[in-house]
Inverse folding.
């Protein structure tokens, strides 16, 4: 039996994060999940519209949903690892039920808990398809990015069409090259000021 993810190119999270940030021109909010997801976001160039998770696993998508609901004119992206999303799978049903049209969740899937030692996730062992789970939860705009060109096209779609969207990306195991400053109060205040500015 062929798995839906068998023909996907394995890409690099840091490079794709830079591609994403380079496409943002309208003060879009980006919520980086813990560990490598936010380290790569930091490495792509700090923006006041970035919010960095510094210790709460699995909350990037729920926080992004809250921002999207509170700021319906602003596009909002969540960057979340597959292991983190597994801790909060229920958020997919909530996102589908609330249906924020301006939300896109990007799931970096390397099948491991990378920052805790590289242990394999249960989803990797069972060949769980996170995008299929998102679709079954009611997120019709969930799809895998097969390669760089499709990733760019899916981000463009999320920037211009109604969601919610979810983009699954198979990534390599390269660790983050930078680490986010450990200053949650500064990030909170900077992000709140940015969200108070009109889009």
């Amino acid at each position: 039996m062929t798995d839906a993810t068998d023909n996907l190119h394995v890409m690099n999270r840091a490079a794709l994060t830079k591609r994403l940030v380079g496409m943002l021109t309208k003060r879009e909010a980006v919520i980086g999940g813990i560990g490598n997801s936010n380290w790569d976001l930091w490495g792509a160039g700090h923006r006041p519209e970035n919010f960095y998770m510094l210790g709460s696993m699995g909350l990037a998508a729920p926080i992004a949903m809250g921002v999207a609901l509170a700021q319906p004119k602003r596009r909002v992206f969540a960057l979340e690892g597959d292991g983190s999303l597994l801790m909060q799978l229920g958020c997919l049903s909530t996102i589908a039920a609330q249906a924020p049209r301006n939300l896109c969740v990007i799931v970096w899937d390397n099948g491991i808990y990378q920052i805790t030692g590289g242990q394999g996730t249960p989803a990797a062992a069972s060949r769980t398809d996170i995008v299929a789970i998102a679709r079954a939860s009611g997120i019709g705009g969930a799809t895998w990015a097969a390669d760089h060109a499709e990733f760019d096209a899916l981000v463009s779609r999320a920037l211009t069409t109604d969601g919610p969207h979810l983009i699954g990306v198979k990534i390599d195991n390269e660790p983050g090259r930078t680490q986010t400053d450990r200053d949650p109060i500064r990030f909170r205040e900077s992000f709140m000021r940015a969200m108070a500015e009109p889009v």
Q: What stands out?
A: The first helix runs from residue 13 to 22. The chain has a mean pLDDT of 89. The two ends are 47 Å apart (CA to CA). Residues 33 and 59 are 7 Å apart (CA to CA).
